[in-house]
Design a protein that fits this description.
Length: 149
């Protein structure tokens, strides 16, 4: 299977032509069959397609799309998310959404519908972004602290 070419993260909508609320079969029609499947620690069904993961609710609807640093063309608006220097990308995201929260290395941009990890340290191994559906992080945000550079 050829790697997916990811281009556009659309807040609270999806990534490229894949939309939140789709079933695994609908996602497979667009991105092809996953190379592996698993159940995460939250007991959610997850599919993996190279550098992209898709997570589904108990109702079998897409709720989160994870992109690793290998999705080099991924952008949110005019921001090339994985383009160095990553600190500058973090500042650009904060300029778009000052309502950001953090906990255990994850920064959640509530108004952009994304979370990022690995943007605050020199190691790029865990550099990633997740786009999520509306309401997906709401309960967790209450326990998080406001993010500041």
């Amino acid at each position: 299977m050829a790697p997916l070419k990811i281009e556009e993260v659309i807040p609270y909508i999806g990534v490229d032509h894949v939309r939140f609320g789709m079933t695994p079969a609908e996602v497979a029609q667009i991105w092809g069959e996953p190379h592996s499947r698993a159940v995460n620690f939250l007991k959610q069904y997850v599919e993996y397609r190279g550098s992209v993961s898709t997570t589904y609710s108990s109702e079998n609807q897409l709720i989160e799309i994870g992109l690793s640093r290998h999705c080099t063309d991924a952008r949110l608006g005019n921001i090339q998310i994985f383009s160095p220097p990553k600190r500058s990308r973090l500042v650009e995201l904060l300029n778009l959404d000052k309502d950001a929260y953090e906990d255990v290395g994850i920064i959640v941009f509530k108004n952009l519908g994304i979370s990022v990890t690995g943007f605050e340290h020199s190691d790029d191994d865990d550099l990633a972004i997740s786009a999520f559906s509306r309401g997906h992080w709401d309960e967790d945000l209450e326990a998080m602290r406001a993010y500041q550079l």
